[in-house]
Amino acid sequence: MTVNGTRDAAGVARWSARTALLAAAAAVAVLLLGLGGGGLLVLLGGLAGLVVTAVGTWWVLAQRGPLRLCGSMLMGAVPAGVLVLFVRSALWSTALMALALWSVSLTCARAAVRKPLPPAGERGRAVARPRQPVLLMNPASGGGKVERFGLAARAEKLGARVILLGPSARADVAAIAREAVAEGADQLGVAGGDGTQALVAGVAVEHDVPFLVISAGTRNHFAMDLGLDRTDPSRCLDALTDGEELRVDLGTVAGRAFVNTVSFGVYARVVQHPEYRDAKAGTALEVMPDLLLGGAGDRLDAVVDGTPLPAQQALLVTNNPYATADPLGTGRRPRLDGGRLGVIGVRVDGAAGAAELAVRGSLSDGLNVLTAHRVEVTATTPTVPVAVDGEALTLTVPVTRAAVRPGALRVLVPRDRPGVPPVAPPLDWRRVLTLALGRPVTDGDDRHDGDDR
């Protein structure tokens, strides 16, 4: 970036920070000035609605029968009741104005601390075209994307050998990949879900060959964080003729590779049920009360780089941290080469704990968000269920270890790809204030500010 470009970016960040502070002050002023006309009622009504809705959500998840029905009624009726209160009391204009100003403040604050990503084509290393690429394709993945997008025919036209995975072969996908390398493959790739991607990625690391991700799964989370096209998986095949190489991290749990997440506890136990694939919501509602309140849902203890996390109901370990604390792992990762695991632990003891979590968020005692190099999980049972990139497994305890292998995976991606949209770093109002005052930012921690993949 040129000197003038740097100054322009600094100026935009400075004025964005100032606008954020002004909008936040205006939101507070609207509520304070409206105290006599109901501004206090806006605050208390909104807070009470949030608390009661959280309690209702807990009852839906953790109870059966009348309490679950009552909880579902609260989840629907309370937000509607708060809205009716605002309208009938002529408070809607105060609430709407304060909400609009706060939204402007948050938008400008995130814009101020976000650094733009470099163009996607500048982040990879130029490599020679693979001579004997082998691609494993799951025809059933993603509702039949392999056939719908003609992936096998196009890959073969580009010189790749394609292995179609049948229902029985998918269980031996790692062995098939190893055999392909033994026969001379100098590049491995997968058109399938993240669970299959992880197995073959582990083999690629084992033999130090490039790995090609084809976004033919259902969620394609790994492809998303690599900046690949998830709407048209055939574009991923461009890497065979015009590709570049990225070095990213690979997670491991009990010796098994994972590219996205490993879940312990409640979610992992839900995934174990055979009915889950066809009826996710119904299966979860059926088994969650037992998991959350005891019995089958024995708590897990974890040690995260020496920091103990006792009696967790759910534990999510991610290959690099997500931008926001999402216990379901549905967000984005700002980078895949940070050399750290993300760890999110959840412990909610009753309706009061659910209310605290709703109000305080990541500051709640029930939510622990950390980063680490190593995580050790213990349980009182001889085995513990886990979900590795969405695949249900059972691992042996008393100790199950998760770790990260920095820069272990060589990923071959197309030079021309959509790229990863900028991910806002955690919002730090001290940093926003520093920018607004025109002072240089000296925290030195840019792990969330860019993407060096």
Description:
- By secondary structure, the chain is of the alpha+beta class.
- 40% of the residues lie in helices and 22% in strands.
- It is built from 13 helices and 17 strands.
- It has helices at 3-33, 39-62, 66-88, 92-113, 145-148, 151-157, 173-182, 194-207, 221-225, 266-272, 280-293, 350-360, 429-436; strands at 125-126, 133-137, 161-164, 187-191, 211-214, 243-253, 256-258, 261-265, 300-304, 307-312, 314-319, 341-346, 367-372, 374-378, 383-388, 391-396, 400-414.
- Strands 1, 2, 3, 4, 5, 6, 7, 9, 10, 14 and 17 form an eleven-stranded mixed β-sheet that branches. A six-stranded antiparallel β-sheet has the order 13-12-11-8-15-16.
- A hairpin with a 2-residue loop joins strand 15 and strand 16 (391-396).
- Helix 1 (3-33) packs across helix 13.
- The longest helix is centred in the first third of the chain and has 31 residues, at 3-33.
